[in-house]
Amino acid sequence: MSVEAKALQTVSDQIVVAGRPMPQFHHIGVEPLTGACGCEITGVDLRQPLKPEVLDEIMTAFEHFLVIMLRDQNLSIEQHKAFSHYFGELMELPQAPLYAGDREMQEVRREAHEPVSVVPFTKFHTDSPFLERPPKCMVMRAIDAPRYGGDTAFANMYIAYEDLSDGMKKVLDNLRVVYSGRDIWSKNAKLDEGRRLRLRESHDFREDQLENAHPAVRRHPRTGRKALFVTPTYFKRFDGWSEADSRPLLEYLAHMPHKLQYQCRIRWKPNTLIVWDNRFLQHCGIHDYENERRHLIRTTVIGERPLG
Predict the structure, then answer these.
(1) Which of 26, 102, 191, 228 is in Cβ range 3.0-4.6 Å of 157 for a Cys bridge?
(2) How far apart (Å, rounded) are the C-alpha atoms in residues 103 and 109?
(3) CATH for 91-302, options being 3.90.1150.10, 3.60.130.10, 3.20.20.60, 3.30.365.10
(4) pLDDT over threshold 50, residue 165
(5) 18-53 residue pLDDT tens
(6) Is 0.90 topped by the overall pTM?
(7) Looking at the predicted structure, is the pLDDT value of residue 13 above 70?
(8) Rounded distance, CA 225 to CA 269, Å?
């Protein structure tokens, strides 16, 4: 076989998933969830200290697949936080309810008798983009999960950006987005009691910390790969544009994560743990469960200021 033929065979044998050739793993089991993003990791018990080579491969899987899932991880709060610290410094969020009174733990909870509206943001979004340094990732574990339904869907915003036309990329590469969380509580207070979100009642953030402008396209700080960073949640306008002028472009971009070819879904079971990259994914809780309790707890890891 010629050198050229061998090279072509090598390329054809590569598994491409999440838009890039799949890394090799020798110390953990890795099964992609879809061709777009997400994987299930096996052979790891997070209650035990992680060997350096195991941790390195977990981090490789996180960077490549953007959301990693591990089943049957019955962790204490301290074990949950200890694993989270591998990804960076933990942070608080002004709007997210605390879990067990711990300022480094948050919860997403809907009791069986409660309406869907108590859990915010049932559309694709990025968490807390209004902060100067939005979250890098979330480490979330299920305490209770519906027997059926209640999945979380994720969309790979690298691929969403890469599929745009060159002309649209040029427009977006030069845009910034103004995100604001200043009016979350005032808007919530105006809703009927049965439609209000479950929000944190008080926080220590200043008013000026709740609004920032970030690139519409952000780069990974290590690889330089670009992803779309535009979400309707907390969106005010494109910087230098009016809200009216911003709306049509926002509405077009808001449809991007809904394309099935960008997505994966996590089916929750008790003690399922996931870590998702909040910078380069959008996510959506799917509220297709009735009369069931869904209780998820999480930590949030602070990210870098978005790079354009």
Answers:
(1) 228
(2) 17
(3) 3.60.130.10
(4) yes
(5) 999 999 999 999 999 999 999 999 999 999 999 999
(6) yes
(7) no
(8) 33
